[in-house]
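Session log. Operator J.P. requested a structure for one protein chain; no other inputs attached. Running the standard single-chain path with token output.
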Amino acid sequence: MPINKIPGVYYDEDVTYELTGEGSKIPVIIGATGNTYDEENNPTYKIDGTQIRKYSGWDEVNVATNATNPGIGVWTENTTNQLSNFLKEFFEEAKLQANDDIGVPHIYVIDVGDGKTKQSWLNAIDLAKSKLDATIEAYIGCDTITGYTIKDFITGVSTKLKECTVELDLRTGFTTKGYSNPSSVTDADLIALTGSSTGNQESRIGIMEPLLAGKTFARICVTPANTEPGFFEYRSVEPGTFKDRTRAQMLALQNAGIIFNRDEHINGNVYPKINLCVSSAFASNPRPADAMFHARFNADDLLREVFEACYSQIKANESATNIAYLQTRINKIVNDRVSSEEMIQYDEKTGKGTKLIATPSDANPYSIIISGQMQPQKCTVAIEVTATLVI
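Structure written below.
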């Protein structure tokens, strides 16, 4: 067979591959497009954050906004449509390349027009919560809202996410600054978003560097809940793409709770990866236990399964038999997570590990309290080696 390519790494631009797989996170992506409301020709397409659309692939997104096949606009080089750019990057990275790859079966998209109207964003943030199969959100272009800083936006979004947890809707949100022009944003600009004076140090909020943020978000979505997203190499990024930084510069970003990408050089091989998927809470002192999304995703995934087990007890009698049965189900869920090395086993002596107990509430005769603690397995961030050279 003739060889028709010189040695090198080649990139396939086709992004129409069907997105399937298990273990992915379903996203709601809210973003600025620059689209306008056409009441006469296309009155069914809203750009005020009040309409959510479901897409299964890039070919559905990359079409004009019309009544018969409403995409978000046709992508072109140097487009000003931030949402289109972001989704193109997203689908490039989410594209399946191997049999065991995880894909995203569908996504939800909300158009907020030019992204400058605060009310459109508020509408979209509320509407996103209507999709209960979605567990992760992205906000693209929120740094251009008139009279509303990105810091204000992050604070507002974080409040909404906390409110959702009360109703057992466990979500995380991701955003970036300067996505329309990544070269205009410095590391200092990103670090300033999580400074001690901002209050934006939240374990459910992630701030990504703008360069290829769509691919970063996709990489997070297609990583299992029990794995650090930075463990896997990017599927669609060639070495040499990301910004070169010194170790001091990378450490400054990491400690500020910023998600950035880098080429990891190991014995002559280069692996483009997320540095660490840290939340903005990573900038806190002291750092909370869920400052890394690896822990937050893992804990949330366990809680969802526990919540499902608890649902069978709703409206049932609070008999000793039923309570014991519920506790047995919860114990099995926890033990399964321990066996699969996702959670740490509870140790009676140290009081550390994962343990959840179901008890009737003393304050409310109609309530059952699930109390305890969760301790996800950590990922290895550094391996320290001490070696002695013997002559």
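Operator note: The longest strand covers residues 261-266.
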